[in-house]
Specification:
By secondary structure, the chain is an alpha+beta fold. Helices cover about 40% and strands about 20% of the residues.
Amino acid sequence: MTSEFMVIGKTLHSIIENAFALKEIEVVHPRLGVACTIDILEECTPIEFKTSRKRIKSSNQIPQSYIEQLQIYMTALQTRCGYLAILNVIDADLKLFRLDMSEMDCAEALEKFRKRKQALEQALEQDNPALLPKLEWQCRTCEYRSKCNGQTSSFASLFTAWNPST
């Protein structure tokens, strides 16, 4: 069922882009060297569009992953303000939230993203995804959750060898 809602979200993204003649913008983070794909960029202010089945009525209900995604865009653009537009796909309720970051918030977010990038590079070098930090949103929708019960371990243990003769 999760994949169906992802398709709905992508479709709504596309409808909004077409309706407002908007295109996603790719920016390379000047300090981290990673590409960021920003939904809407309005005068150096990033606007991230999200679709959700969850009713988000106040800022304390916003998933942390949404906030972190906007924060990386804000640090890439060296701006202290960004917006999250969250559309509930069940009742078509659209909420707009403003995120402001202090200089200290920016420094902390940048350090967190630097460490995450470093962990990813190490996991790739060692071919070991267990080195990656556990991200709750990934576990919630992971098709292998029933095999690992949300515990991070070597992904290799989740797969059985494929034998074409059996």
